[in-house]
Design brief:
194 residues; alpha+beta; 4-stranded mixed β-sheet; 20% helix
Length: 194
């Protein structure tokens, strides 16, 4: 499908540390002029860490924008020049105190396609070992371990609302259904660490 909207001008309205607001002047398919406003946020990665017994690791953290705690998979921004997988490894170590031997790429999500450009790359991390946590100053979080089926139930009941977490948990549940959760489940492995 080709883009039916023609951009005639574009300008940046605001640029902060994490967010940029852009305004595009466009001509719509029937010839009308309009303004599109959209937000650009640096890309991110989200990782669901899974133990051999099928338990998963989540983090509960107060989220300023929504004014309440949120239970989520480990997530964070991808720094300039950093690969999505490298960001996922870094965030897993910092937030959950975990390293993984096996990394399964589960695609990416576009959180809100109408007004937000912020691809978020999803990973399933397996072959875990605990290391020292190193959260950032603003990250005051609780690390939570639970069975994958419990995490799925929290998604379905609306208790987990973070979009990328919902998608990662449901994709992981489908991956387990197709491949099994034991150490012999290698089908679907896309990347691994040395």
């Amino acid at each position: 499908m080709t883009n039916p909207i023609r951009r005639t001008a574009s300008r940046q309205i605001y640029e902060g540390n994490l967010v940029r607001l852009r305004e595009d002047s466009v001509i719509l398919p029937r010839g009308s002029e309009a303004i599109y406003e959209y937000v650009e946020i640096k890309p991110g990665s989200s990782t669901l860490a899974m133990e051999e017994d099928g338990d998963v690791w989540l983090v509960r953290e107060w989220k300023y924008a929504i004014g309440r705690p949120s239970l989520e998979v480990v997530s964070g921004g991808i720094e300039p020049g950093e690969e999505a997988l490298d960001a996922a490894r870094r965030e897993l170590r910092e937030e959950a105190g975990l390293e993984a031997r096996e990394w399964i790429a589960m695609g990416h999500v576009d959180p809100f396609t109408t007004m937000l450009r912020c691809p978020n790359y999803l990973f399933l991390a397996r072959g875990l070992r605990q290391v020292e946590r190193d959260p950032e100053e603003a990250e005051v979080m609780e690390v939570v371990r639970m069975p994958l089926r419990s995490a799925v139930e929290l998604v379905l009941s609306g208790e987990i609302t973070h979009g990328s977490s919902c998608v990662a948990i449901l994709k992981a549940a489908e991956w387990v259904r197709r491949n099994g959760s034991g150490s012999g489940a290698q089908r679907g492995r896309l990347t691994s660490t040395p």
